[in-house]
Amino acid sequence: MKASVIVVVHAGAHHLEDSLGSLGSYAERSDVEVVLVDNASSDRSGDAAIARWPWVKVVRSETNLGFAGGVHLGAEAASGDVLVLLNDDAAAEAGFVEAHLEVLASNPGAAASAGRLVSWDGT
Asked: Which of 27, 39, 58, 77 falls between 20 and 30 A from 64, CA-CA?
């Protein structure tokens, strides 16, 4: 099963070290892709992402589609069987994608899983 991690960004290039940087362990994997949706960012977030993380697939929108519209655009570009959403200002812990896939695989009727949000200090 292939997973597509979708990150939507709007003028948030300063957040990408957190989100995309935390997904680096998936760079060489064929069963996980990372799709960044640059939602009409004035700071050229997509270009910054390509320069720093060339393994990220970048999709650009000429207009700000909002979060839901950005996710939809990312889903259209994704090739995974499962979509995993990560906010641009959040970081994923090791095993982030695997945890979601495990929950979905062990609950055949499930259509979604959610992570637990914690602050930077773990609380």
From this structure: 27
